[in-house]
Amino acid sequence: MDSQQFREFGKAAIDFVADFYDNVRDGDVLPSVEPGHLLKKLPENAPEQPEDWQTVFKDFTSTIVPGTTLWHSPQFHGFYPTGTSFPSIIGGLLSDGLGVVGLTWMASPACTELEVVTMNWLGKLFGLPEEFLNCSSGPGGGVIQGSASEATIVCLLAAKDKMTRRLKKLNPDIDEELTKIKFIAYTSDQCNSSVEKAGVLGSMKMRLLKADASGRLRGETLKKAFEEDKAKGLIPCYVVANLGTTGTCAFDPLYELGPVCQEENVWLHVDAAYAGAAFICPEYRDLMKGVEYADSFDVNAHKWLLVNFDCSALWVKDSYDLINAFDVQRIYLDDVKAEVKIPDYRHWQMQLGRRFRALKLWMVLKIYGAEGLRAHIRNQISLAQHFAKLVRADDRFIVEPEPAMGLVCFRLAEGDILTKKLLENLIEKKRIFMVAASCKNRFIIRLVICSQFTNKDDVEVSWKLIKDETDKLIPNDKVHIKSQSIASINHIQNISICEKSK
Ligand code: PLP
Question: Which domain holds residue 403?
Fold first, then answer.
């Protein structure tokens, strides 16, 4: 393909993407395909002969697109949002266009330095303590990881190394390998699956401690777990606090967990993958009270901040904890000796190569501005509140727990079986997508405002889909009668209680 063909193909692709978003409300959210559909359709071997772009593009629209879930439809309410925006898409395109790999500063100076700048910008926008920023005076700094999962495992491995060094310093004779197998990590039973997986990948037992009735891991629970494990000869090493759990968006109190970790020199990592984006709005920063105790803090810019996957923003207070753990030297990786403090990001992550991901973050921060991003977050939260109001007005439903950020959890008052049936029926129709969770041992449906294009009318469309399907399971008139009869029973009971007390 020459540059002229690239221009033509590129323009057609941009037009496709623009049309795709202009028509974001068209079609079902879930594709009408069966597992294996593409495996059957596509040839078993790569083409021997080159094909022209027009043919390939036609293949793309006719075979690939129909099997794609519409994550940016306003009726996509599953999981948490995945970011996208035109500035971010252009940033990604330009990054691919430059085609650099920033494994050292010299390998692409702008790749490293733009990451330093944008991570400092974002850290300041979240109101993170200065220790987390990359400044000449301290060892802190931000780095872009591929995902929150990666950030959790990178910090777990760094915590393991740091604890080993500390114990070795206290007692140079200890056997490192025998000591490491005693390390233990903690999080709440509400953690994302990736947190538990970090323990598996990092060979560290991860204890899932029981969260309280509001889904929060409390300081007392953690303290008790530390004591139990120390009594067994184990060594507490790593704690993952959740700011915005995946199930119900609960916030662990960092101000309780932090002092417990500090007392035992245990690394405190904060997984704020989704909800952390809201800290860009000062009114939500109370939820990260105690962040000064954290050793590392991660927010997925690729979730709620309009940046396309992948762009997970991780800050550490002491980058030497990462460097000490991951620095492996080779002569071909020798870099320039700089006067200014420039991070060697290859020591801050698992892989060697790194893409120019800061470009898409930079584009988004510049083209939306902090005000634009704040408006996006506030708008999505207010849409979630509007949805919660609609659900609450129908007495067949219970909204529980309290809606948090862009998430509303609800269930049918009739019970779990019917709630599950409602979700199954909705998914089967493919017009709306939500996933389940559990809260206080009840089956709940989670509705998240995901698409940046969602407006109030869209929320009402989603509610109508849910309501119409519910009408088939529990006719509204029955509920009306039921609520009337409950009201009259209550009335009769009240009268008899009053009579008795007289
Ligand atoms: N942590 C939380 C709280 C999440 O909700 C998620 C994903 O939704 C993750 C971690 C994993 O994020 P990633 O896919 O970036 O690894």
Answer: 1-30+69-84+372-502
